[in-house]
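Customer escalation, tier 2.

The customer says the design service returned an amino acid string that "doesn't look like it belongs to this structure." They asked us to rerun it and document both sides in this ticket. The original structure tokens are below, unchanged.
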């Protein structure tokens, strides 16, 4: 079963689904950019029309507590739009943590996650943990990346809560290519890495594909999902790939046999990305990216895995 904000549904009803989106968030708190204050649930209901028309049915909503994730808003959006929404519970990065977290023990944070999963704020349980983040300072070599002390406690608590509830853990591993460091902390704390999604794997690229595969393949070998969730984000920061490169890298991973461990999304979190404001909309994966994947040779079975079977399995907590 999948625990949506409106109740449980069967796994096979969830997809096609995007595994890392925001529907209601205030990232302006963190970024200082008012374009990131996306807090109009009725506007989002209208935005989801294009998502549904394109074929989308489900969304994993990853807004952390410290970016003002709001369970009640998500329930209103789901009820009015008919889109299945699974709500994540998370803390973002150490510089935006709520004050209580800075002195909380791993056990206290773990208990908080479990309460949110079993009961939930306002009686709306979370269906997974995510996106839990670690800092964005880039390291020259991803193997040299380390989580801070506070981030380490949050990741250890997530592993503990996963052991008690079976939920998926979804991460924010951005500019530092932090995936391996995140998996190391989770593994040492006893997490099941086949129930972990490393987010933002497509934030950076190298011209030499081998160097990108050096990052992806060991994470896939360890059992984790590799998520390309920045589809549609181009020229945003140094080293940011084009969608053409994202499609090529995904096609390579499918050819190498990893179609069952790939997830996709567009990480919508800005008012300017909404169709109402002239942006690309929640349907961008279908309108723009899917044809690229097909041109790169990704077949229907792999697309069904990436869009339907994988998010269904990932979100399933039974
Ligand atoms: Zn993120």
């Amino acid at each position: 079963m999948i625990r949506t904000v409106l109740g449980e549904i069967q796994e096979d009803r969830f997809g096609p689904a995007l595994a890392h989106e925001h529907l209601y968030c205030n990232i302006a708190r963190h970024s200082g950019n008012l374009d990131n204050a996306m807090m109009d649930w009725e506007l989002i209901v209208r935005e989801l029309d294009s998502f549904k028309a394109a074929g989308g049915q489900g969304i994993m909503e990853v807004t952390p507590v410290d970016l003002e994730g709001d369970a009640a808003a998500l329930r209103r959006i789901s009820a009015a739009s008919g889109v299945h929404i699974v709500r994540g519970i998370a803390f973002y990065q150490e510089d935006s943590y709520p004050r209580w977290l800075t002195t909380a023990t791993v056990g206290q944070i773990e208990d908080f996650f479990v309460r949110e999963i079993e009961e939930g704020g306002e009686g709306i349980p979370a269906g997974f943990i995510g996106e839990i983040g670690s800092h964005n300072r880039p390291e020259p070599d991803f193997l040299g990346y380390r989580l801070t002390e506070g981030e380490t406690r949050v990741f250890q608590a997530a592993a503990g809560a996963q052991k008690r509830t079976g939920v998926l853990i979804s991460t924010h591993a951005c500019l530092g290519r932090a995936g391996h460091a995140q998996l190391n902390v989770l593994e040492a704390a006893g997490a099941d890495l086949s129930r972990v999604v490393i987010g933002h794997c497509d934030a950076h690229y190298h011209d030499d594909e081998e160097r990108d595969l050096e990052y992806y393949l060991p994470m896939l070998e360890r059992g984790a999902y590799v998520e390309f969730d920045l589809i549609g984000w181009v020229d945003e920061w140094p080293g940011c790939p084009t969608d053409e490169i994202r499609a090529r890298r995904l096609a390579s991973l499918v050819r190498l046999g990893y179609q069952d461990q790939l997830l996709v999304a567009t990480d919508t979190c800005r008012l300017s990305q909404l169709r109402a404001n002239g942006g690309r909309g929640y349907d961008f994966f279908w309108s723009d990216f899917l044809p690229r994947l097909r041109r790169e040779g990704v077949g229907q079975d792999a697309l069904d895995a990436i869009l339907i079977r994988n998010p269904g399995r990932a979100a399933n907590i039974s």
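Tier 2 assessment: The sequence is consistent with the input. The chain has eleven helices and twelve strands. Residues 130 and 170 are 4 Å apart (CA to CA). Sent an explanation to the customer and offered a walkthrough call.
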